[in-house]
């Protein structure tokens, strides 16, 4: 326990991965098992107040965590890429792309994301719930002419971007960007 505590104190806030722990007899499973006790023993000054306890031990004490790439399905020729239909980039790399798109579709469900047609001059992004907030920091997504979210995202930048009559999850976006009219159901026997 003492070896773990010493290493954590020395490396907290350095944005190293917990997997890099070099304390004798200590590994990430040890830290995970004893994180409550370690949290109580680490100085409060080491806590990154921007991360709640629920966010997890690693970010709260300034340790790095792997971030999944932002997955995008793209039209032919997107960013000069020919023959590529899907790309995954780190968020910071995505912000550096210099592209012009007419429409960004953010879809939260992975199967819907994989099966959605890609309108011309558009990008379909898998919002994946947890990454929607990261998308708002990408200039060409945030400031582009058209954003449309399919799913139940309550993220503020998406809410403000949606047109007043946004489609529900069952509506379909055709390759030309048009939407089918809302589907209605009829009760059996009526």
Secondary-structure map:
Layout lengths: L1 H10 L16 H6 L1 H7 L15 H4 L9 E5 L11 E4 L1 H6 L6 E5 L2 H6 L6 E5 L5 H4 L3 H4 L4 E4 L5 H6 L29
Parallel strand pairs: 3-4, 3-5
Antiparallel strand pairs: 1-2, 1-4
Detailed description of the structure:
By secondary structure, the protein is α/β, with parallel strands linked by helices. The chain folds into two domains: 59 residues, no CATH class; 92 residues, no CATH class. It is 28% helix and 12% strand. It is built from nine helices and five strands; from the N terminus they run H-H-H-H-E-E-H-E-H-E-H-H-E-H. A five-stranded mixed sheet has the order 2-1-4-3-5. Strand 3, helix 6 and strand 4 form a beta-alpha-beta unit. It is elongated.
* CA-based shape: elongated
Name the poorly predicted regions: 155-190
Q: Count of DSSP helices?
A: 9
Integer average pLDDT: 76
Order of helices and strands: HHHHEEHEHEHHEH
First-to-last CA distance: 70 Å
Total tally of structural domains: 2
Strand adjacency order, main sheet: 2-1-4-3-5
State the helicity in percent bands.
25-40%
Strand content: 5-15%
Number of strands: 5
Radius of gyration: 22 Å
- Helix-strand category: alpha/beta
Query: Major beta sheet, specifics?
Result: 5 strands, mixed
What distinguishing features does this structure have?
28% helix; DUF3322; 2 domains; JetD_C; alpha/beta; 190 residues
Quick rundown:
This protein has 190 residues and is of the alpha/beta class. The protein contains nine helices and five strands, in the order ααααββαβαβααβα. Residues 169-183 have a biased composition (Basic and acidic residues).
């Amino acid at each position: 326990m003492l070896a773990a505590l010493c290493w954590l104190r020395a490396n907290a806030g350095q944005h190293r991965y917990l997997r890099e722990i070099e304390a004798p007899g200590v590994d990430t499973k040890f830290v995970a098992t004893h994180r409550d006790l370690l949290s109580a023993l680490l100085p409060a000054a080491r806590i990154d107040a921007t991360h709640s306890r629920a966010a997890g031990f690693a970010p709260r004490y300034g340790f790095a965590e792997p971030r999944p790439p932002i997955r995008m399905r793209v039209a032919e020729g997107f960013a000069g890429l020919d023959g590529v239909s899907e790309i995954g980039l780190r968020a910071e790399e995505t912000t550096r792309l210099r592209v012009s798109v007419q429409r960004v579709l953010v879809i939260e469900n992975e199967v819907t994301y994989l099966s959605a047609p890609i309108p011309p001059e558009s990008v379909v992004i898998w919002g994946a719930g947890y990454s929607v907030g990261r998308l708002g920091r990408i200039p060409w997504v945030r400031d582009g002419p058209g954003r449309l979210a399919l799913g139940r995202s309550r993220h503020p930048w998406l809410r403000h971007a949606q047109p007043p009559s946004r489609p529900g999850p069952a509506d379909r976006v055709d390759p030309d960007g048009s939407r089918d009219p809302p589907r209605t159901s009829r009760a059996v026997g009526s």
